[in-house]
From TrEMBL:
Sorted UniProt keywords: Glycosyltransferase, Golgi apparatus, Signal-anchor, Transferase, Transmembrane
Organism: Macleaya cordata
GO molecular function: glycosyltransferase activity
Main location: Golgi
Mode of membrane association: Single-pass type II membrane protein
Compartments where located: Golgi apparatus membrane
Domain of life, source organism: Eukaryota
Name used for this protein in its record: Exostosin-like
InterPro entries: Exostosin, Exostosin_GT47
Length: 454
């Protein structure tokens, strides 16, 4: 009787604990677990999509004012630079690097073409709010030279350029103080810093501004170093970049005669020869004439851009070196650039996603399959790439810093990341009270040129 009562009491106190109910409870727990996990995965996926969308909207860091915004990371949230620009009269030899041994080469004659960035950047710095006239407060030092132009116009030989650079540098105490780390040089052509043959000895720590990220085709090493140097845009003809004063206007896609074009001198370069031969196979799709240096077949300035705008894609193969001006020109005639140069380096990669505004195709696959691929891209996608390129092409214009977006302002942002609080070289030493001295313990303000270079 007591046992029966105990069983009854046990059942009464746990009325839902039958085996069937326990099984149902386990099923509910398992179902809840899987539903929760599915919901979490769905939420994460949704969140990832949202973040991806946000990233895609920020590809070019275009702010509400229509200008390009540099990310805070590594740059700061505003420009704060002091750059000293050496005067051509303060250093013996500097005028020769600008105007030749006889001083007969003018800056105006050097401002056009791919060499023009040496002149333009110098002129803009002279008028810049970032310029300082006091060496002791400068973050960076700019050395103006027009050596590419001077060399091409016969103003100095290669040997004279080399000797004159060394002579100039030996008169700069601040160059020796830092080992050249805070000194800026512009080398605007495909040769890059190789114009100064002794650059590996004297400029191996300096900041080099150049469109040329690779020149290992004829040298054992490239002068460009991703840690210290800055890739700058090529110098596009002002007549194309100026708003409202363009030499030519872009054509609607439907009115363009060719699928693609290449307008450049072949000069026996393998990639360019391939394009000329390909154009002969497919003359209705690819325009690639053998351009001449002179004579009746030479394209005039306006004719060149009228041809360039007449294709959906502008091909940019490697020439003497890895970069080509056609890449930058294409944005102003609004064709999509197709890079056929495997080693190319592009400017401002911290703010521009080039996969959204250009195509890079393996140079070894230059042939019919390239044209087939380009032909497969719908016009809507081509238009979208052109529209995105239109947003950022201001970065390829050497306009005054008063413009909200320009190559000059972009270069200033990149230079800001190169500023250091402290500089040293193998030939500088310091004492307990902060005094900077040389190897003979002579204080910095008493250093006399010419001096041994670090």
């Amino acid at each position: 009787m007591m046992a029966s009562l105990n069983k009854t009491r046990t059942f009464a106190s746990n009325p839902f604990c039958t085996r069937a109910h326990q099984i149902v409870a386990l099923i509910l727990i398992a179902t809840t677990f899987f539903l929760t996990r599915t919901f979490d995965q769905s939420f994460s996926s949704c969140n990832y999509t949202s973040n991806a969308l946000k990233r895609s909207q920020d590809l070019f860091f275009v702010n509400n004012g229509g200008s390009i915004s540099w990310p805070d990371r590594g740059y700061g949230n505003y420009l704060s630079l002091k750059i000293y620009v050496y005067n051509e009269r303060e250093i013996d030899g500097l005028k020769e690097l600008m105007y030749g041994r006889d001083g007969k080469i003018s800056a105006d004659s050097c401002v056009k073409g791919q060499w023009g960035t040496q002149v333009k950047i110098h002129r803009m710095l002279l008028e810049s709010r970032f310029r300082t006239l006091k060496k002791e407060e400068a973050d960076l030092f700019f050395i103006p030279t027009y050596v590419k132009c001077v060399r091409m116009m016969g103003g100095l030989s290669d040997k004279e350029i080399n000797a004159t650079y060394v002579k100039v540098l030996s008169q700069m105490p601040y160059f020796r103080l830092s080992g050249g780390r805070n000194h800026i040089f512009v080398f605007p052509s495909g040769a890059g810093a190789h114009l100064f043959r002794s650059w590996p000895t004297y400029l191996n720590r300096s900041i080099i501004l150049t469109p040329e990220g690779d020149r290992t085709d004829k040298r054992d090493t490239s002068a460009f170093n991703t840690w210290k140097d800055i890739i700058i845009p090529g110098n596009v003809d002002d007549g194309v970049t100026k708003y409202g004063a363009s030499l030519v206007q872009p054509l609607p896609l439907s009115k363009r005669k060719y699928l693609a074009n290449f307008l450049g001198r072949v000069q026996g370069k393998v990639g360019r020869v391939k394009l000329v031969e390909l154009a002969k196979q497919f003359p209705d799709k690819l325009e690639s004439p053998e351009l001449k240096f002179s004579g009746p077949d030479k394209l005039g300035r306006k004719d060149y851009f009228e041809h360039l705008r007449n294709a959906k894609f502008c091909l940019a193969p490697r020439g003497e070196s890895s970069w080509t001006l056609r890449f930058y020109e294409s944005y102003f005639v609004e064709c999509v650039p197709v890079i056929l140069s495997d080693q190319v380096e592009l400017p401002f990669q911290n703010v521009v996603d080039y996969s959204k505004i250009s195509i890079k195709w393996p140079s070894t696959l230059t042939g019919p399959q390239l044209l087939e691929y380009l032909e497969s891209i719908p016009d809507e996608e081509i238009e979208a790439m052109i529209a995105r390129g239109r947003q950022i092409r201001c970065l390829y214009v050497y306009a005054p810093e008063t413009e909200p977006c320009s190559a000059f302002v972009g270069i200033m942002w990149e230079l800001q990341r190169k500023v250091r609080q402290f500089h040293q070289s193998a030939e500088t030493f310091w004492l307990h009270n902060g005094s900077i001295v040389n190897r003979n313990l002579v204080q910095f303000h008493n250093w006399k040129p010419p001096m041994p270079l670090p």
